Amino acid sequence: MNCTRARSEIALWVGGDVDDRETLQLQRHVALCAECREYQSRMAGSLQVLQEPASPAAYNLHDSVWPDVQSRLSAQSQVEADRTERLNRWLPAAAIAVACLAVIAITSEPPPRHQRLDGQPLLSDGLIWQPSQPINSTPFVGWRVPDDQLRLPGVRPLSQNDRQTGWHNGRSISYDAPK
Amino acid sequence: MQSQAEISKPLTADVRPGSGVGDARLVEEARRGDRDAFGELVLRYEQRLMRVILQFVHDSEQARDLAQETFLRVFQRLDQFDASRRFGPWMFRIGVNLTLDFLRKRKRRIRWSLFSEHAGDKLPDPATPDPRAALDVSQEVRSVIDQIPENYRSVLVLRDLEGFSTSEIAAILNRKEATIRWRLAEARDRFQGLWTRRMERTAGSTENAKTGGEE
């Protein structure tokens, strides 16, 4: 055992914080090393001084903190009960208010920017469901693509010679694409 | 003076006469809202907790407030307590942490006040004699302990002044026992160094006073 390690262990040894094997090693070391023996002596003296005044202010059960703790716990319980009661009082009103706000939010929602004129959902952004003539007088004429360059994969653009089918007055009809 | 045997009593609180109920059962009952069970725990541990806190704050009123706060927090956190562990170290951990937090805040406040415009009021008056001269040994020891950094000081106080074992201190401070042992050795070494220097200074000043008086 070297002196550095011995000094660290001596600090524990003087307080009885080492086991029997370490005690034996330390005893052997201090028997041979005068400096460590001196260190052990100083350390034991200072520890004795340290442990002597270990009696802080007298304390007896008359000074028990329990009555104060108990009253503070009761006060806390009262505060929590009041809070719960207040919450219970306001909860129905708050729920009604939230419900009203939700109804207002739903009913005042603006219509979507693009929608099919017949009210059906929009299939794809950029394609607008729109007949070329008023819907009451002419049959459905197909898709109108706003941008001539727009192509959907797998969809062939309308040709003027194509025969088209559509719905008119609730019946399926076949007609020539408008020229 | 407190005997070493008294210091070294185990961390588990003494069971009060007439109540053979263990801590675990009382904790379980307190968790269910039984205030009397919690009161029993308070009565079991308050004396030792007060002593531990007093070792750090040296002010009985302040220690009392901190003890009350500790028990309130313990009650509020009973749900977080792991019932497979011992109640004592857990409770002391809350108390010691609360006390160390209090000391840190107080230190910050003092530091701040030194920089405030009233700092001059707080400086010692050179005309009045040094109050340290009147300190007895226990106060001298305390003043030396207070010079040791908090990490080491808390271990030193809990082991050498309050008699907790190193494994109990490890549980209280939530550190490994090896760390606690290392800090304890370091703390004792620092105390020894500071104490020796203090004694040498005192001896030197006494010698000077004698020499001055003879002249």
What are the SSEs and their pairings?
The complex is a heterodimer of chains A (179) and B (215).
Chain A lengths: L2 H11 L6 H13 L1 H18 L14 H42 L55 E6 L2 E6 L3
Chain B lengths: L3 H4 L15 H9 L3 H23 L2 H17 L10 H29 L3 H4 L14 H9 L4 H12 L4 H8 L3 H38 L1
Helix pairs in contact in B: 2-3, 3-4, 3-5, 4-5, 5-9, 8-10, 9-10
**Rg over CA atoms of chain A:** 47 Å
Q: Under the CATH scheme, which architecture of the largest domain in chain B would be assigned? A: Orthogonal Bundle
Q: Please outline the major beta sheet of chain A.
A: 2 strands, antiparallel
Which structural class matches the secondary elements of chain A? mainly alpha
**Which outline of chain A best applies?**
elongated
Q: Pairing-aware structural class of the strands and helices of chain B?
A: mainly alpha
Instruction: Give the strand order of the largest sheet of chain A, numbering strands 1, 2, ... along the chain.
Output: 1-2
Percent helix range of chain B: over 70%
| Share of residues in strands of chain B | under 5%
Q: How is the CATH topology of the largest domain in chain B named?
A: Rna Polymerase Sigma Factor, Chain: A
Shape of chain B, please? elongated
Structural summary, described in words:
The complex is a heterodimer of chains A (179) and B (215). Chain A has 179 residues and is mainly alpha-helical. Helices cover 47% and strands 7% of the residues of chain A. Chain A folds into three domains: 3-51, no CATH class; 80-109; 112-179, no CATH class. Chain A has four helices and two strands; from the N terminus they run ααααββ. The longest helix of chain A is centred in the middle third of the chain and has 42 residues, at 66-107. By secondary structure, chain B is mostly helical. Chain B folds into two domains: 7-117, RNA polymerase sigma factor, region 2, helix turn helix motif (Rna Polymerase Sigma Factor, Chain: A), CATH 1.10.1740; 135-209, Orthogonal Bundle (Arc Repressor Mutant, subunit A), CATH 1.10.10.10. Chain B contains ten helices and no strands. Chain B has helices at 4-7, 23-31, 35-57, 60-76, 87-115, 119-122, 137-145, 150-161, 166-173, 177-214. In chain B, α3 crosses α4 (60-76). The longest helix of chain B has 38 residues, at 177-214. The radius of gyration of chain B is 21 Å and the shape is elongated. The two termini of chain B are 41 Å apart. Residues 1-9 of chain B have low confidence and may be disordered. Chain A binds chain B through residues 7-9, 11-12, 14-15, 17, 42-43, 46-47, 49-57, 59, 61, 63-66, 68-70, 72-73, 76, and chain B through 1-2, 4, 7, 35, 39, 42-43, 46-47, 50-51, 54-55, 58, 60, 64, 67-68, 71-72, 75, 137-138, 141-142, 145, 156, 159-162, 166, 181-182, 184-186, 188-189, 191-192, 195-196.
